[in-house]
Design goal:
This protein is of the alpha/beta class. It folds into two domains: about 5-125, NAD(P)-binding Rossmann-like Domain (Rossmann fold, 3-Layer(aba) Sandwich), CATH 3.40.50.720; about 125-325 and about 335-355 and about 360-380, Dihydrodipicolinate Reductase, domain 2, CATH 3.30.360. It is about 30% helix and about 25% strand. The protein contains ten helices and 17 strands. The chain has helices at about 15-25, 40-50, 55-60, 80-85, 100-115, 130-140, 170-175, 180-195, 330-345, 355-375, and strands spanning about 5-10, 30-35, 50-55, 70, 90-95, 120, 145-155, 200-205, 210-215, 230-235, 240-250, 255-260, 270-275, 280-285, 290-295, 300-305, 380. The strands form three sheets. The chain has a nine-stranded mixed sheet with strand order 16-15-14-13-7-12-11-8-17. A six-stranded parallel sheet has the order 3-2-1-4-5-6, with helices on both faces. Strand 11 (about 240-250) and strand 12 (about 255-260) form a beta hairpin. The radius of gyration is 21 Å and the shape is globular. About 45% of the residues are buried. InterPro entries: Gfo/Idh/MocA-like_OxRdtase_N (IPR000683), Gfo/Idh/MocA_oxidrdct_glycsds (IPR050463), GFO_IDH_MocA-like_dom (IPR055170), NAD(P)-bd_dom_sf (IPR036291). Keywords: Oxidoreductase. GO terms for molecular function: nucleotide binding; oxidoreductase activity. This is Dehydrogenase. Pfam families: GFO_IDH_MocA, GFO_IDH_MocA_C3.
């Protein structure tokens, strides 16, 4: 079997997730990675068992053997790397956000249309097996008319004022942090499975830690990983820890969504409730192998992830039988599987996968939400 040869750019938290998901496909091979310098690239390549290591992403893109690039860098680099990849004739898989603003995103969408390459987003939350079951339930009319959608995406990794990341700085992450970082996953998941579009938003932002303590050296070097006063500098923060967004959908449905990165005990919880005229359904990513189905005139249900119980065209999103759990890494595997199906099938295929257009959609949503929070009013989502 001829394998599709892949290069991964960036090896922070999400880069190795991509490497693992790629390797779980039968028709792919990760042959190269790049990092900010040759020393780090070689160390990361050795730790991941990858042969080629480049200290400059341009060298990886120029490698004639690399057919697909995966962009796993900080946000501010996505646009330029994606553009160069497309122009070099490579297929591109990009982490969210697609770019730093809608103008850059629109340019990338147009470039993707003009060139004979697959350009995809790693919006993996939509491919949990039971999320796809909900998508099929809605398509078949099981929920009836959708009246309301409520939910949240909450984490606690920035709970302390000593928690720090490049994502806190606008020059690297963009105008929005919590909404752009994890809120985009919620909106993509809800819109892609319901078929609804967010028409208007009314948002409220808050930054609970106006000042954070930025480490002056790697945390691992601290004795007991405890900051001493001389080990950090206090820096002002102007990206949101928290946001609540009221939503009006294009079918007349209403909704609300909260994102919070200082929610103690919530490690990585994407949650949504969809209320229809026939029944309602609830998904919780920290319990991804079951969904709650609510009824007015009968018992409520807990549906387990079991291929034998799911709709036939959803079974492909399951890799294991009932009782065998599948989670975040498996959702990434399924997203990457669909992307590589599209690469093999060609640009004009009808394979369902998250495209650059979906990444652009998230940029448009973020722009409207940020504007709404700043102006304290309802804002129309424009594309």
């Amino acid at each position: 079997m001829k394998k599709i040869k892949v290069g991964v750019i960036g090896t922070g938290f999400i880069g190795p997730v991509h490497v693992e998901a790629i390797r779980r496909q039968p028709n792919t091979e990760v042959i190269a990675l790049s990092e900010i310098n040759e020393e780090l690239a070689r160390a990361k390549a050795d730790s991941l068992g990858i042969e080629r290591a480049y200290g400059d992403y341009k060298e990886l893109i120029a490698d004639p053997d690399v057919e697909v690039i995966h962009i796993c860098t900080p946000n501010h680099l996505h646009y330029q790397i994606a553009k160069e990849g497309i122009l070099a004739g490579k297929h591109v898989v990009c982490e969210k956000p697609l770019a730093m603003n809608v103008e850059e995103g629109k340019e990338l969408v147009e470039l993707a249309k003009e060139h004979d390459v697959i350009c995809a987003m790693h919006l993996n939350c939509r491919t949990y097996p039971l999320v796809q079951q909900i998508r099929e339930m809605i398509a078949r009319g099981d929920l009836g008319t959708i009246f309301a959608v409520n939910g949240s995406y909450q984490q606690d990794w920035l709970f302390k004022d000593t928690d720090y990341s490049w994502r806190l700085e606008k020059q690297f992450s963009g105008e929005s942090r919590a909404i752009a970082d994890i809120g985009t996953h919620w909106f993509d998941t809800v819109e892609s499975i319901t078929g609804l579009k967010t028409e208007k938003v009314c948002a409220d932002f808050e930054t609970f830690y106006k000042i954070r303590k930025k480490p002056l050296k790697p945390v691992e070097t601290y004795s007991g990983k405890v900051l001493q006063p001389s080990d950090y500098e206090e820096v002002p923060i102007d990206t949101e820890d928290y946001a609540t967004v009221l939503i009006k959908f294009d079918n007349g449905a209403h909704g609300s969504f909260t994102v919070n990165q200082v929610a103690a005990g919530r490690k990585n919880r994407m949650y949504f409730e969809i209320y229809g005229s026939k029944c309602s359904v609830v998904f919780d990513s920290e319990e991804p192998n079951q969904i709650w189905i609510g009824h007015r005139d009968g018992n409520n249900e807990i549906m387990m992830k079991d291929p034998s119980l799911m709709y036939p065209n959803v079974v492909e999103y399951n890799s294991y039988p009932g009782g065998h759990t599948e989670g975040f890494a498996d959702a990434s595997k399924q997203t990457i599987r669909k992307i590589y199906e599209a690469i093999e099938a060609g640009k004009d295929s009808d394979v369902y996968y998250p495209k650059f257009e979906d990444g652009y959609r998230e940029l448009a949503l973020c722009k409207a939400i940020v504007k709404s929070a700043a102006e304290e009013k309802w804002v129309v989502v424009e594309e």
